[in-house]
Amino acid sequence: MTAEENGKKVALITGITGQDGAYLAEFLLSRGYTVHGIKRRASLFNTDRIDHLYQDPHEADRHFILHYGDLTDSTNLIRLVQKIQPDEIYNLAAQSHVAVSFESPEYTANADAIGTLRLLEAIRILGIEKKTRFYQASTSELYGKVQEIPQTETTPFYPRSPYGVAKLYGYWITVNYREAYGLYACNGILFNHESPIRGETFVTRKITRGLARIKLGLQARLYLGNLDARRDWGHAKDYVEAQWLILQQPEPEDFVIATGEQHSVREFVELAWQELGGQIEWRGQGEAEKGYDRETGECIVAVDPRYFRPAEVDTLLGDPAKAREKLGWRPRITFKELVREMVREDLKAAERDELCRSRGYRVFNYHE
Ligand code: NDP
Ligand code: GDR
Fold first, then answer.
1. Rounded to two decimals, what is the model's pTM?
2. Is 265 in the pocket of ligand 2 (CB under 6 A)?
3. What is the ipTM metric for this complex?
4. Which of 46, 75, 175, 313 is 20 to 30 A away from residue 357, measured at CA?
5. Nearest of 22, 256, 26, 251 to residue 138 by alpha carbon
């Protein structure tokens, strides 16, 4: 008997090895779903974030099943959707780094824009429009150069990066398939959300990881780009619940998911260092600005223009009123709690590295 015949819902998550994929898989499993995920082939294991959910393929009654695949491969996606016959597809896979999208714009468009189209077409080709609901991981980067503060579902878009432009296509093709073919297809316009398993090169994780390593003497300094950028930062755990809620409504609609609170990169640094027991004093301006530990006088943060973007998104602030009213959703984890959790987890990781180093093992660090 298949999981569906058992009365269980079947979900397919693209991007299951990423931050949101891992939290969403955990959430759906806890709700009794059978979860299928698409992972890319890599030369090293790339399933760190979901290893705790792994079930041996030889087990009889599995609820967590991984498949090789890629958003740039239509035949692979059609075959998987046909085989899995999901009730819900969560399209979380993407080249998700804004700065990297300036380096690899064509690939970003292929995976993030056309990848979305490929999945929607798979649903249409297989004739499962009435059965399968579709969630598209849209983003506050659509607002880019903001036209209105705070941003809502009706604020005009003005993307500022190849990533944002690719996601704009993903947004509209999702709306288009809903209107043209009656698909239950929705966009969650999610503002930045972070966690201890956030990718190490996004600014929040780069800060908590870097400062924890500085605290333990594993690294001297943290190099950052635009300290004045302002973001509406929430916790990924809260946000994946919103992704699920969006697909459980009577009618398909698009929703902004945000906290409604904004902080600068500089404030994030200050709070993270405070969590580690220190205080930062800023001196200098622009590219010459540096952050010093008040007690030791050591320079621990410096600006490196290498991390400036060709076109920056200076400020984002979401209004989650619609999600609150229609989904009954609200964020539970505060900004302070988020920073604290990230710092603590990175401190533990730094302690493990320090232990290895003290035993004579080589410990690598990446400064990207
Ligand atoms: P991550 O970068 O952590 O995860 C991205 C996932 O996509 C990874 O599993 C990655 O695989 C996979 N992936 C990348 N390219 C491909 C491809 N060509 N084919 C198949 N899989 C691929 O992102 P998040 O979890 O943070 O974000 C999830 C989604 O939400 C993304 O679409 C992102 O753009 C969007 N988003 C994120 C926000 C945030 O603040 N986190 C806010 C708004 C939107 P691998 O592990 O092999 O690299
Ligand atoms: P973002 O996240 O671009 O908002 O995209 P990121 O954390 O990369 O940058 C946020 C802001 O911080 C500034 N910044 C730096 N950023 C990085 N990565 N590294 C630095 O050293 C640094 N210094 C300053 C950036 O310029 C920017 O203004 C994330 C991704 O998860 C997207 O996939 C998602 O769609 C959006 O959030 C919402």
1. 0.98
2. yes
3. 0.99
4. 46
5. 256
